[in-house]
Amino acid sequence: MADPELAKGLQFDLVVLVDPEGFGPGIEGAVDRSLAMTRATRQLVTLTRPET
Prior knowledge:
about 30% strand, two-stranded parallel sheet, flat, alpha+beta
């Protein structure tokens, strides 16, 4: 798993986010999710855990 902070300033054709809620709660988690999601130039795939 890559830290979203490592991707800052970079762009990728495809970004796959696995369990984006796992980035954490609050502002810090939201910033990390936003940073990760905005790295995609063509396709963003989000994989989440199924509801139980």
